Amino acid sequence: MKATLKNYGQLMKFTLSFTVVFTCVICYQLAPNINGFDWFSILLLTFAGLCVTGSANAINQSVEKDTDAQMKRTRNRPVAAGRLTQKQAYTFAFITGVLGVGLMFYFNIASALLSAFSLFLYAFIYTPLKKVNSIAVLVGAFPGAIPCLIGWVAATNEFSAGGWILLLVQFLWQFPHFWAIAWVSHADYSSVGFKLLPSKEGPNRFTALQSIMYAVLMIPIGFLPRYFHVTGDWSIWVVLVANIFMVVQCVRLYQDMGVPAARRVMFSSYIYLPIVYLSLLADKL
Fold first, then answer.
1. I need a labelling partner for 229 at 20 to 30 A (CA). Which of 64, 105, 186, 252 fits?
2. What confidence tens digit (pLDDT) does each residue in 270-283 have?
3. Rounded to whole angstroms, how far apart are CA atoms 101 and 116?
């Protein structure tokens, strides 16, 4: 039973799924009509989000079974390694997808439909597109950021400015984050035909320059939560420091052009999200 649970946890990429759900819940709490902590709603949103995200990841691993088996970083995934069959993975994806979207109806129809759209976009558009064109990263950034809007809409039942701003923060963050991962794992990715870096030549100064560009764009976006009265004054400075830190790491990547510098961008991006979203929540108006 322990081994089975571990396999299904790896199938849904629990750590990645939890990171996505974390921002969804924070954005739910940032909504103006939410006062205090309704633990039932928070836990329900967390569980539903894990189901939807886990379903998308399970489909991704099923579709990419043979590809995953060829890459060092993914060959031990449960479907690629043969510990779970594709049928088991698809069954898990169907059950968790239906359950997750169904539970979102508790909040409202809009958040449920948005969850279903995000799942579809990630599993059936982004996943096959990775072998076609590097625009896959742009497409994948939408389901990666939509959970922020889902959390806001689940609370407000409105597609108002606050939700779009929170989505935009996570949308822009994904480019330096994912390109850093693709830089570090370029040999693996290119060996199976994945086209994930903005330059056809792979890790080069153009790729690093693109990362800088998106990191710089994050700076003015960081002022919008205060401008639209989602948060107060002091969180602006926390977000500004975090954004400048990301720009500095991307500039270092441009200067060094090496895997260690790409790893610094990658790990900096992991630290960035909790710092930014928790500071916004702490400074909520």
1. 105
2. 999 999 999 999 99
3. 6
